[in-house]
Write the structure tokens for this entry.
Amino acid sequence: MRVLSADWVLPVASEPIRDGAVVLEDGRVAAVGTRGELGEGERFDGAAIVPGLVNAHSHLEYAVYAGFGDGQPFGPWLATHIERKARIGWEEFVAVARLGAAECLRSGITTIADASFSGAAAQGAADLGLRALVCLEVFGADVGEARHRLDQLFERVGELESGTIRFGVSPHAPYSASPDVYRMTYERDLPVVTHVGESDDELDYLLRGEGPIAAVSQVDPPGKTPVRHLADEGLLGPHVLAAHCVKVDAEEIGLLVRHDVAVAHCPRSNAVLGCGIAPLRELLDAGIRVGLGTDSPASAPSFDFFEEMRTAVYAARARAAEPDALSANEALELATLGAARALGLEDEVGSLAPGKRADLTVVSLAGSPYLPWEDPAAAVVFGGSPERVQLTLVDGEERYRKGGMAWHELRQEAAEARSRLLGVLPPALKT
């Protein structure tokens, strides 16, 4: 048994507890209450204990892509990444994914839903002890080729499945995977992650066969928006997590509701790529299961989930021109229990309650300009950062403690992969 206590415990599904404590036993939460009730245990002064953050959309394999193609429109940016990721192999992808997993843990993230091009996200998450739903990615219009690729990916990493590593599938997007390829992936009866309604370039191609995506797509344009296209093909359902949904109208939101599709909201990525602001308030008010996601550092440009929460608040308020369009409490829920619901994991993670997995993070509030005794959720959301994370536990096991990660090794291995991506080898690698 282990007890942690802090100035605040934020269970998320219930009211914040001042001078709170959490009891952990056998990888699960045994009790949540006050320090007076449960004891002090390991004390974190000037801090808050919150549920482990749940990242509903990530790409660990792109952890060193920050800045690649910055300032390009979505279509050319996409083409840049397609070309560059062909320059590295399995070992480099694993090195990058391991760094990405470490960066997630440093940001208080304990669970991810990752769209994985090579499968390396599963290896990186397993090596670092991060809980992960790894959705193996396929592309194209040829079902035979896509099936072969998916079989190869499962053969490569399927043995990593465990209590913390689960698998899904990811037909990349309606502009990059045909309806038949989608259907082929659904045969495995696994969770699905797909990119939907992310950009105007996507709409230009799907509606009219125009724009920069035409140069890289192998899929015939259907003459429909992505949500309508997937709905008409019978490809929406509660097993589907649609990433982005920036370019959706009221009718399409209704289709998402009708088919109980979940949404991953990635406001920083959408802002950096100039894609726009997703209608988050409308999605939430419609009853859609929405979770917050970082997307990849290629667009975000980091796994800083505190910055993601802040951006969600700012973007929602800017879109609505209303200061109460999204609160700090709602942002924290999107990053915890909301994301867990979007992934179908709400019975296991996303809040601090007896019986749930002992996934949590401790965030220092010392010196924060946001007074925790006034609004502890705002202190975490607006004052939090990876530098303030003191401890991250997954299943009650320490996966990150401030000052304890072997960053030099992780970053050195990943830096070599970045150099290959850029086509410039560091001196030690030149031959």
Q: What stands out?
A: The chain has two domains: 2-51+355-407, 53-342. The first strand starts at residue 2 and ends at 9.
